Amino acid sequence: TCALPIWKTMKPISIEQMRSERLSYIGASDVGGLLVDQDGHPIHPYKTPHGVWLDKKGLTEFEDNERTVMGQLLEPLIAKRFQLLNTGVKLRRTGTHKGKESFHACNPDRLIVQRVTQIPGTILVQPDKKGLKAILQLKSAGFFGAKGFGDQGTDEVPDWYVAQVQWEMYCTGAELCVLGLLHDTHLYSQFLIYRDQTLIDQLVSIVNAFWTNYVVADIEPPVTGHDKDKDWLKDAWEPKNDDLIVATEELDNDVEKLVNELPKLERLTNIVEGRKSRIKAFMGENGRLGTSYR
Predict the structure, then answer these.
(1) Residue in 194, 139, 140, 138 with CA at minimum distance from that of residue 170
(2) Which residue has the higher pLDDT, 186 or 125?
């Protein structure tokens, strides 16, 4: 008897179709953009809640850059390296997977066709009929981009990637995500992130609140000090008259804190610049500095 397939047959969709559909849902790569730290600053290096809102309202146009184009071109190569290392593990492209709500969805890079388990003492996985339902996430990063990753074989990946793969496991029903990383131009590392239902429940709550309070309500989320938001403000904010607008209570609070914090920032900036200047003066013409710090 043949074992029943663990995945429904689903036709892969094109990049263009996926980008068009993503207006109607929060995808895995969006979720990390909704997360902020205790000070309200986005944790994602390229996305913010305000930026995600602009995307969902159709107020931005996606423009490929060298990083995104190269990432797409490298995906098949990283998938091939995964298969060469993880003997017997088969992969499949797929389409859009939906969660419990119509605006919960994802497009995982690859489905792992068989159930798998980790080979003891290694970073690798192998087919196992009693193993876990798994997906594969394919990433590429330069030298500095790879610094946020820990030891391979662990789940030590940047927080926004954790959110991304947990969302994909939620939408697909997977129990394990293998993340294959190409870094430093030619090195492959592999990470194993297991399903965390507590974290998934938290992400679902964050997504539901964002979708209801901002996307459906057509209300802009607050902008932050993130470079992405500052870039948007440069184009969007331009006084057209000399009219007076009265601040809200919340904005009054921001103004008061800003007035109190600016002198502290100026003092800290002076301290930092002073230390940098002393280091440069000491180094002189020397290109490297030997120090006992770390």
Answers:
(1) 194
(2) 125
